[in-house]
Amino acid sequence: MMNRRQLVRAGAAGAVLLARVPKVLAATYDLTIKGGRVIDPSVELDAIRDVAIAGGKIAAVEVDIAGEATNTIDAHGKIVTAGLIDIHTHAGRSKDGPALVLQDGVTGWVDAGSAGADDIEQVAAVARGAPQIGRALVNISRSGIVPDGELHDINHANVALAKGAIARNLDVVVGVKARLSNNVAGANDLEALRRAQEAAAPFNLPVMIHIGQSFSPMRAILPLLKRGDIVTHMYAPAPNGILDDQGRLLPDVAAARRRGVIFDFGNGVTGHFDWATVERATKQGFWPDTVSTDWNVTSKTTGVVDFPNVMSNSSCLVCRLNR
């Protein structure tokens, strides 16, 4: 047992020790982000707020957080929001891709068909090694994307090989991709889509189709889509887009959405959208279900740039419609 003198000495020694590490013991939060514009659609929040983080979780969102923090970030003049999820990228083409999109705030990405059965392992390896969540769609063409179009020879759409590619990479592969533009598939577009569905079916996976200037009209393409399938580049201009020759939304397009087909913006670079199509469709109430970029490692020098820029384009659209 301690006597009174020993207890006083021990207490004094403890006080000296505590004085040497005041911030470690006094800190309430690991990180406080001060004064940013916090946007959280889940609670309809868009306001200047502080955000505090403790133990890897959001601990507080308040006008002024007074508690001590181990680290503090001054976010005045900046946007603070949840990590962005980009469902149409080509980040898996290069080991550098995931780190680059992470710098742009993308904490989850899907490589949309860069690789087919012949090279999906390369994209899968990039996804597994990414600093954030990475996933991939297998291109129904065994070659993946090629500049001259991967589906002009329909034999490249090999269902058995696509199924094998999915089965080998179930931890990463989340769907099948078919590019249906005329310069990619020509008159093979419908058969390529049928084969994509056949490959996806045993695994209950969605199919994403790239539309825009296709050989076949939308009224022939849409019946081949099921609930949960995705139409990317939804605002691609004519011919054979989502609008008729008078600029009216096709009834087949509205019906597809009602039965659960997802329509994705898919910014892209050339021929993937134009403002006239966007404005005509949105004035008829046809807005995107999702916004994605079609990003790749060269996008910094193109019209895509990054996800925040694509989101800014979407905001500009709202401004244009409200003028």
Gist of the model:
This protein is of the alpha/beta class and 323 residues long. It folds into two domains: 60 residues, Roll (Urease, subunit C, domain 1), CATH 2.30.40.10; 238 residues, TIM Barrel (Alpha-Beta Barrel), CATH 3.20.20.140. Helix 5 runs parallel beside helix 7.
What does the model show?
By secondary structure, the protein is α/β, with parallel strands linked by helices. The chain folds into 2 domains: about 60 residues, Urease, subunit C, domain 1 (Roll), CATH 2.30.40; about 240 residues, Metal-dependent hydrolases (TIM Barrel). About 30% of the residues lie in helices and about 25% in strands. The protein has 11 helices and 12 strands. The strands form 2 sheets. It has a 7-stranded parallel β-sheet with strand order 6-7-8-9-10-11-12. Strands 1, 2, 3, 4 and 5 form a 5-stranded mixed β-sheet that branches. Helix 5 runs parallel beside helix 7.
